[in-house]
C-alpha cells in the first residue's frame, strides 16, 4: 500500500518510527522533506549514512554495517539508493534484516522512479510499505508543499510569482524552492514579490513540454498562457503541433514501447489519460494532423488556430 508523505509523517508522530521505509518517486524535495522530518522526530540523535551501491565498496560497506548492528547500537539512519544492484548472494541477507525490528538502525530505501520495475525492489516494498515521493500532478498540491516549506523558513512570496514558478518549474518542487531561495540570497529580503522575475527571464524557461503538461491536465487558462509565452519567444507552431500529436499518440499506446515524451511527461501519462476518452483522443489526433497540413499549405494565423485548438481540447469539444 502506498501512502502520502503527510500520512507517513503523521503515523511517525502518533505511533513512533518504523525500522525501514521505502520512498518511491524522484522528487528530491519530497525525499529530503521526509528524511528531515524523520530526523527531527528522532531529535537528530541518529547518524545519517548514504549508500549509493554504485560500486562494490558501497555494497560491502552497507553489509558490514548491517552485520555489525547487533554489536554496536549506533543509532543510524541508512539512506540506500540503487539497491536493485545488490548482488543476488546478498539479497536474502538484506531481506532477513528488514524483517527484524530495529528502531535504532533505520533503513530508508529510495527509488528515483515512478513505479517499481525490479523484482527485488518489489520484495523489499512488501515488508516496508511505500511512501509516495513523486512530484504531484496537481499544481495546487505543489503549491501547498512549497508554501509549507516557505512558512517554515519564514519566507513570504507573492502569489502571482508562486503561480508562475509552479507553472514553469512544476516538474520538480526543489527547483521551485531553489529559484525562490536564489532571489532571497540576491536581495537578502524574505519578502519576495513578482518584480523579482523579469519578463525576459520568465520566457526563456518556458518549454514546449510545459504546454503538453497543462494540456494533459485540461487546464485551459494555463494552456493559453503557456502557448502565448512560447509564441512570444519565437517557438515555431509546427513543432508545437507535432509535440501535441506525440502526447496523444502516447495516450493511445498506453506508453508502451519507445516513448516520444520526456521522463516528466511519461511518468504522468496515466494521469493525463484519465481526462480524455478514447474517442476524444482519436478525434484530437485527426485534428492535429489537419492543422499540421493547414500550417504548411496556407498563411493563416497560427496563433489564432492554436488558441482555438486549445479551447476545444480543454473544453471537451472533441468528445462530442
List the helices and strands and how they pair.
Blueprint: E1 2-4, H1 5-15, E2 20-24, H2 28-41, E3 47-51, H3 56-68, E4 76-81, H4 88-99, E5 105-111, H5 119-128, E6 130-132, H6 139-152, E7 156-157, H7 159-169, H8 173-187, E8 191-192, H9 199-204, H10 208-216, H11 220-232, H12 237-253, H13 263-267, H14 269-273, H15 278-297, H16 302-314
Parallel strand pairs: 1-6, 2-5, 2-6, 3-4, 4-5, 7-8
Helix pairs in contact: 1-2, 4-5, 10-11, 10-12, 11-16, 12-15, 15-16
Structural overview:
This protein has 16 helices and eight strands. With 320 residues, it is of the alpha/beta class. It has a six-stranded parallel beta sheet, with helices on both faces. Strand 3, helix 3 and strand 4 form a beta-alpha-beta unit. Helix 10 runs antiparallel to helix 11, helix 10 packs across helix 12 and helix 15 packs antiparallel against helix 16. The radius of gyration is 23 Å and the shape is globular. The two termini are 38 Å apart. The model has no long low-confidence stretch (mean pLDDT 84).
Write out key terms for the chains shown.
alpha/beta; 6-stranded parallel beta sheet; 320 residues; two-stranded parallel ribbon
Give the DSSP E fraction (strand runs of 2 or more residues): 5-15%
Strand arrangement in the largest pleated sheet: 1-6-2-5-4-3
Percent helix, as a range, is 55-70%
Q: What is the straight-line distance between the termini?
A: 38 Å
Question: What is the tally of beta strands?
Answer: 8
Classify the secondary structure makeup into a structural class.
alpha/beta
Shape: globular
Major sheet details: 6 strands, parallel
The whole-number mean of residue pLDDT values reads: 84
Rg from C-alpha positions? Answer: 23 Å
Run of helices and strands: EHEHEHEHEHEHEHHEHHHHHHHH
What is the helix tally?
16
Q: Which blocks of ≥5 consecutive residues have pLDDT under 50?
A: none
